[in-house]
Amino acid sequence: MPEDGTAVVAKRVDSGSADLGEITELARAAGYSVVGELTQSREEDPAYEFGEGKVDELAALVRRSDADTLVIDNRLGPYQTYNIGQKLPEGVEVVDRFTLILDIFGQRAQTRKAQLQVELAELRYELPRAEAKASLAKRDERPGFMGLGEYDESRERDIKAQIANIKQELDAIADKEETRREQRRESGFDLVALAGYTNAGKSTLLRRLAAELDVDENEDLHPDLEATAESEDRLFTTLGTTTRRAETGKRNVLLTDTVGFVSNLPHWLVESFKSTLDSVYRADLVLLVVDASESVEEMREKLVTSHDTLYERNEAPIVTVLNKIDRIDDDELEEKKAALTALAPNPVAVSGKTGENVEKLQARVESELPAWERERLMMPLVDDTMSVVSWIHDHGHVETEEYDDDHVLVEFEARPAIVEQARAKAADLTPVESA
Ligand SMILES: Nc1nc2c(ncn2[C@@H]2O[C@H](COP(=O)(O)OP(=O)(O)OP(=O)(O)O)[C@@H](O)[C@H]2O)c(=O)[nH]1
Ligand SMILES: [Mg+2]
Fold first, then answer.
1. Three-class SS state of 39
2. Residue 351 beta carbon below 6 angstroms from any ligand 1 atom
3. How far apart are CA 400 and CA 421, in angstroms?
4. Of 9, 58, 134, 353, which sits most exposed with the smallest number of CB within 10 A?
5. Quick one: which residues bind GTP (predicted)?
6. Pocket of ligand 1 contains residue 233 by CB under 6 Å
C-alpha cells in the first residue's frame, strides 16, 4: 500500500502532447505524492514502451527525485514492465494505469462485495501473465527448469479456480440485489441511479436530493441505506453503492450513488465491477452527471467514456445532468450545451453545491419515470378497508379519498403493477351482509 509513497508519473502518446492531469490525480488518489513527471511523443517501442533513451532519462529522474514508484499511464505488457524495471534503482516499483486503479479500489473496498470485485480484477490481470510464464517455461527444455514449468501451470489452474469461485459468490450477491430491486419496485419505489465520470459530483447531488428515510423501520428492505455519501475533490471517493430516498414530488424515488467511470479501462476491469454497476444498468432512470466546469473537449471525452460503459448493458432511459454550473456563466453554459447536443440532448443544468435548478431536475425525474396509471376504486367500509387505503398511500399517490356511510372512493395514481394489486385487494373486501 503506497501510503506516503512518492511517484514519478510518465506517459507516452503516439503524437501530439501527453496530458498528465488525470494520471497525477489517480496517483494522488492512491496515496502517492508526485515528485516528477515525464512525457514522450513517439510510436510504441515493443521492448520498453518508451524509447530506450527515454527510459534511461526516466531512471535518472527517479533516482534524482528519490521516488519509490514509477507510474506509467500506458498499457504495459509483462516484458515491458520487466525491462523498464531492470533500468530502475533497486526496489522501485513499476505501476501502470490499471494496477494503479486497482490499488485505489483495493484501499477503498470496505464491503465483502467490493473486496471480491477487486480480487477478481486482480486475478484477471494476473491470468495472462501466468499463462505467458507457463508457456515460456514449457518451451524451455533445460532439464533443471522442469519444476518451474509445472509450478507455473498449477498457478494458472489455481487462478482459474479462484476466478470461478469469486464469480459464483458475486453472482449470488447480484441475485440477492436483483431480488431487492424487484421488492422495492413492488413496494411502489422507482429506482433512479446516478452515473458518470469520477469526480463529476454524483455524491453531492445524492445528498442534495436525498430525503430522510427511517432506516431502522425499513432495515429488511433497505440494508444499503446509509446516512452519508462522502464527497471529496479526489478521484474515486465512492466505491460501493449508497441508496437514499429522494424528494422529487409525487413519486417514491430511491436514488443510488455508485462508483464513477474512468477512461481507458480494459474490459475485464469494468466487467469485474458488474454487480456494482448493475444498480445503474437495472435502474428505471439514469442520471448521467457531467462536470460542466471542464472544457468542452474533456466533457466530450468523459461523456463518450460514460456512454461506452453504459452501452452494452444499460436498460434505462438516460437524462444528462450538467453539474457545477455555479462555476461558469450562462453564455459558457449555452455554448457547451450547443457543442454537446449530439452526446447530451436536452440536458438539465444544475449545481449540486448551491442547489441551483435542483427543482428542475426533480421535475425532470418525475416526467421521465415510466408513466403511472390512474385509478378510481370504490370500496365497502369493512374491517380491512383502512389497511388497503393505507397500502395505496404507501405505494402510490392518492389524489382524493371520499367517505360516505358505507363506502370509500379512492382516486390515485401508481405503477400499473400496483394498480393491479390494489384492484385485487379491493375485490377481496366483502361487504358485511346483513344476516
Ligand atoms: N463548484 C462546485 N463543486 C461541486 C459541485 N458538485 C460537486 N462539487 C465538488 O466536486 C468534487 C467531487 O464531488 P463528489 O460529489 O465527490 O463527486 P463524485 O462524482 O461522487 O466522485 P467519485 O465518488 O469520486 O466518483 C467535490 O470536491 C465537490 O465538492 C457543484 O455543483 N459545484
Ligand atoms: Mg462519489
1. strand
2. yes
3. 19
4. 353
5. 196-203, 257-260, 323-326, 351-353
6. yes
